[in-house]
Amino acid sequence: MGVPAATDPNVPRTRWRLIIKISTCTIATVIAGLGLAALLLRADAGQALKVDFSGDAVGTEPKAFLSVVGIWRIEAEGDKKVLAVDGRQWKEGQTAVGIADKARALYGDRYAEFLDRVQAYAYFPYTVAKDVEDFRDGEISVRFEGISGRIDQGAGILFNLKPNGDYLTIRANPLENNLVLWKFEKGKRSSVKWIRNTPTPTRQWHDLKVHVAGNKVEGYLNGTLYLEHALPEPVAGRVGLWSKADSHVYFDGYTVTAAD
């Protein structure tokens, strides 16, 4: 029993809707196994499919995500659990523990190309949502709080992740107060569009959202539309979270909503 893929010809697109949300108040059922979300509340088409951290142990990797580069783990903030990227132990080129098995879980028989690219160019921490195989049109949102980082406090939404390791990300940074659309292609990161003067103070929670419609991408911070860009081709691929260097950042409220 699962939510049908957006490309399933037997399911009308108007009935397909998927929301993956990380919250701290959802009661969920534990589902073990690599490639499945650990905390899952199933809903029929048109209703929410939600994931939370209530059953995750502090200090462990999140069960709803596969950490590819860097250190991603569950941390406690007061009485709630959040997903944290911890760059305080960051080393350039550091892949996550068990990366080969994680690559297989993401791309099956096509894992080798992805693994080679990740291992060769592991400079930017990112983690991938397990249960979103092919996001195209819709919205991805998350709340973030920059905790520390002298080089960076990058908080990004990763999307358009391909089997060859190429991806896009929109990221905010409390140290720089800007919003940037980056692309990672053939091992090289380059900026696509910069928006300056977007204040996101450290030690405060902020809302980051990406809206995708075909090849058109919009970036929102705290409910305000700041960034608009038309890509050369439509978005299609896996999604997740992204960061950089020595960033120590908390994430919560991760939500993926496919367009009706």
Q: What does the secondary structure layout of this molecule look like, with pairings?
A:
Elements: E1 19-21, E2 29-30, E3 39-41, E4 50-51, E5 65-69, E6 72-77, E7 80-86, H1 99-107, H2 111-120, E8 126-129, E9 138-148, E10 155-161, E11 167-173, E12 178-185, E13 188-196, E14 205-213, E15 216-221, E16 224-230, E17 238-242, E18 248-258
Antiparallel strand pairs: 1-18, 2-3, 3-4, 5-8, 6-7, 7-18, 8-17, 9-14, 9-18, 10-11, 10-17, 11-12, 12-13, 14-15, 15-16
Description:
It is a single chain. Helices cover 7% and strands 43% of the residues. The chain has 260 residues and is mainly beta. The protein has one domain (13-258): Sandwich (Jelly Rolls), CATH 2.60.120. The strands form 3 sheets. Strands 1, 6, 7, 9, 14, 15, 16 and 18 form an 8-stranded antiparallel beta sheet that branches. The chain has a 7-stranded antiparallel beta sheet with strand order 5-8-17-10-11-12-13, with helices on one face. β2 (29-30) and β3 (39-41) form a beta hairpin. α1 crosses α2.
